[in-house]
Amino acid sequence: MKLFDVYPINNINIVKAQGSYVWDDSGVEYLDLYGGHAVISIGHTHPHWVKKIEEQLEKIAFYSNSIKIPLQQELADKLGKLSGKNHYQLFLCNSGAEANENALKLASFSNGRKKIIAFSKAFHGRTSLAVSATDNPSIIAPVNETENVVFLPFNDEEALKEYFKENGNDVCAVLIESIQGVGGIKVASKSFLQLIRELCTEYGSVFIADEVQCGYGRTGKFYALDHAEVKADIYSMAKGMGNGFPIGAISISPEIAPKYFMLGTTFGGNHLACAAAIAVLDVIENENLMQNAEEVGNFLVDEIAKIPQLKNLRGKGLMIGFDVPNELKDLKKNLLYKHKIFTGEAKPNVIRLLPSLALTKNEAVKFLEALKEEVAFLVSQNENISAAINA
Length: 391
Ligand SMILES: Cc1ncc(COP(=O)(O)O)c(C=O)c1O
Hints:
Elements: E1 14-18, E2 21-24, E3 29-32, H1 35-38, H2 47-59, H3 70-83, E4 89-93, H4 96-111, E5 115-119, H5 128-132, E6 149-152, H6 157-167, E7 171-176, E8 179-180, E9 186-187, H7 190-203, E10 206-210, E11 234-237, E12 248-252, H8 271-286, H9 289-304, E13 311-316, E14 319-323, H10 331-337, E15 341-342, E16 344-346, E17 350-353, H11 361-390
Parallel strand pairs: 3-15, 5-6, 5-7, 7-10, 10-11
Antiparallel strand pairs: 1-2, 2-3, 4-12, 8-9, 11-12, 13-14, 14-17, 16-17
Helix pairs in contact: 2-8, 3-8, 6-7, 9-11
This protein binds pyridoxal-5'-phosphate.
Pyridoxal-5'-phosphate binds next to α4.
């Protein structure tokens, strides 16, 4: 049986990982500034995480949501404390798309409305309503096309005000990433996020913060929205939550009341996933990883800013992006194959850095040295080509 060929992959077989490093099947070591797409939050195979999962595996891995699972409450207590949202309610699921799907559905149940506002370049996942709210027509199947989702320009306060003025009483929810990930590390302005909060409150719409990529401590605060000093009604999360163990969740305002069976899942909140997620929160707290993300992130930004060829540097904490000019188009590829460093990208020309929140300053320095060397190499290569053409 063949694998369904939907991923353009690098020809590398990773067989071992620890902290910010991974090794391929020939023993070659790579520095990981990509975190398997922002998933590795506390570092690969962190010993506490491994121990917690192993211990849980010996006891029970799974039983359905028809019984008491005290690990879910332990997770909710830790998440409530670390996110500063003890008074919110937790619903557990398995992935980011599923978290957004549930968030949107819950919003609609709560106010009975249908219109969802999403933004240009947004990415919210690949399931039905989540993909409808994703601004990429190539991944929206005809069956997912819906007039219930409207896309407004990101960070455009006037367009948002205008839309609410005309249609505010129909708006079910506003769904936004405070920092767009797949869209190329686009940071929502504080005033834009505050305006969303104001308008949602005024019109009875639900503010959903998609924190799947930008949340869970990555920006130095638990939620990226926290930087704007406003609260969402629902936060969706996934990637960093299990450090690679599949788990997602929504954190729900106390104003939204649950009803039996309005949401549900077979696998969500299983014992093993909870054990993994509890271990992640233990490590984030005990090792001060949010503070580390902020400090090492600031250091990276300060240093990358000194490389004049890299443009439009942006992001917060360890969610960093910059534009790569066409002359340096091989930068990402060369970082991987020559310097053995994984980075992320966003089309057409953005490099994204999404390392573990435990990235050390020494590891950041190692990356910066490779980055500077490779930029200099590509610049000189271009100069040689131009000289040859002009000769
Ligand atoms: C902001 C955001 N939301 C949702 C998702 C979907 O998450 P998943 O792939 O776990 O379904 C992603 C994935 O990249 C994402 O970046």
